[in-house]
Each structure stands twice: as structure tokens, then as C-alpha cells.
Design goal:
The protein has helices at 2-19, 26-45, 50-71, 76-81; strands spanning 106-109, 116-121, 124-130, 140-147, 150-155. The protein is of the alpha+beta class. The longest helix has 22 residues, at 50-71. The N and C termini lie far apart (83 Å).
């Protein structure tokens, strides 16, 4: 019985390690089931070595995860999951343009700003926030600052 306990423990660690190279939860799930079966069998049938088996399983699991985390970025699948280029400001992408022409413009609160809502400036609906004040619908507002898609307004 001891041979089966050890084999299940080693198989469990190997299957968990394999999960890093062939992701899909199948190998990892089978590995966890194998480790649990090995631990349960050790406690039931071999009480004198059960603590050593469980300690080996915990250590082996930690080593399998550490090795997987070390080797995963070096595989083709791992490189596909990791961003290889850094995003630089001023590159080809822009999250949201700052429309600085809105600063100083006067508009009207289309919805109640509590503190976020919608305003109308130059017949255009814009999402806006206040500095914390509630502004009722229909109140005149002035655009104070624009940061990307965040438009800050105040009551006129």
C-alpha cells in the first residue's frame, strides 16, 4: 500500500506541474485529486508515515507551483500571455482625448449631478462630475477642468 501512496503523491505533483504547460484545469484537477487520495490513503492505511507523506505533498506542491511560475514565462504559451511591449504616452493609442476646448464653457445640467451626471454644452451631452456638490437638473454649470474623459464642473 505504501508504494501506491507514494506513487499517487508523485503523480499528483507531476500533474500539477503539467498544468502550467498545458492549461485547462484538467491536469491540475487530476493532480489535486491524486494528492488528496494519497493523503487520505496514508492516514487510513499507513498512520506511521502519514505525516511524512502529507509533508512531502505540501512541499512538492509548493515546488511544483514555484517551478511552474519560473518556467511558464519561458514557454511559447507563457510568452503569449505576457505583454512584451510597454505602453508609452504619445504612442499610437490614446485611452481618451482631453477636449480642453471645453474648459470655461457654460452649459446646463441635463441630469441631477450627485456628484456625477450628464451636462449639455454646445448641444452636446457630456458625462461630468462636480467637486462634491449636488447640482439640480437645469442649473447652469461651467466646465472647470478636463482630464481625459473626466469633465469637472461647478455651479455658475
Amino acid at each position: 500500500m505504501t508504494v501506491w501512496i507514494v506513487l499517487l503523491g508523485v503523480l499528483g505533483v507531476a500533474l500539477i506541474m503539467t498544468e502550467f504547460f498545458m492549461p485547462g484545469l484538467v491536469m491540475g484537477t487530476l493532480g489535486v485529486i491524486s494528492l488528496l487520495a494519497s493523503g487520505i490513503m496514508a492516514v487510513i492505511y499507513e498512520r506511521d508515515i502519514a505525516i511524512f507523506v502529507i509533508a512531502f505533498e505540501v512541499f512538492g506542491l509548493a515546488m511544483a507551483i514555484a517551478a511552474g511560475m519560473y518556467f511558464m514565462p519561458r514557454t511559447r504559451a507563457g510568452r503569449a500571455l505576457i505583454l512584451q511591449e510597454s505602453s508609452q504616452l504619445g504612442g499610437d493609442w490614446v485611452a481618451a482625448e482631453s477636449d480642453t476646448s471645453l474648459v470655461g464653457e457654460v452649459g446646463e445640467a441635463f441630469t441631477t449631478l450627485r456628484p456625477a451626471g450628464t451636462i449639455v454644452v454646445n448641444n452636446k451631452r457630456i458625462g461630468a462630475v462636480t467637486g462634491g456638490d449636488f447640482i439640480e437638473e437645469g442649473t447652469a454649470v461651467r466646465v472647470v477642468e478636463v482630464h481625459g474623459n473626466r469633465v469637472v464642473v461647478e455651479r455658475v
